Amino acid sequence: MITRLDNRSILKISGNDAQIFLQSQFSNDINKIVDKEIQLNAYCQHQGKVIALLWVFKKNNFFYISLPNDIKDIVIAKLNTFKMMSDVMIEEFSSQINQYGLIDENFEDSYKIKNNLSLITTRKSIAANNDYRLWEKACIDNNLPEISIENSEKFIPQALNLDINEIGVSFTKGCYPGQEIVARMHYLGESKRRLFQFISEFEASIGDSINAKDSKSLKSSGVVIRVANIDENYHLMATFEINYINDLIYLNNDTNKPITIVNA
User: At 200, which helix (H) or strand (E)?
Assistant: First the structure.
């Protein structure tokens, strides 16, 4: 299946210092980007909270970043703040390049994201099934997190499972904004929250809370970060307190809206 991703922007990063610059800004090891593959990166603020999740890849010796539209301006502004006198150019190519998400499709110029998901960027139009819900459901099924403006600067990378197999965080690459806090959590503690999938009969939106009956957290037990409404059910991806995965769980703290965890 092919879905046009009009909800995503694309940035081109070029210049003699582009690789060094990105290495100093993002959570993953830019030097290890593999040809024809997307590298997932967190862009963190100084407290280690994730501002945005970025799909980074190389094409024709340039770096490209695919990211949600609603967080694009924040990321561009932050990158421009830190580039200072570096030989780096940041250009938005969203109006010139189309992005398509592929599920179980093989394209010669595609870039693997995760498992059966990949991305293709092109100046041409491709025939697509633009039911975005199916793409969103595939991302949830593949445990691929996303950060939109509603959830920006709320989670450390570990709460998004980015540390597992270092899929989105390298603990050997060196410094980047928030690196000390992210590393301290990795080496000295354990995240109390992880990503889980849920299913709900009740309408849900990104940013909604998920609450465990017995949780004493001052904050909600969990927060929804992805939603796909299919066949009268809402498929959710959310951060959630590990200690309460076997508890009674409700949407938006409403005991009349019980939901079910599906991948505990």
Answer: strand 193-200
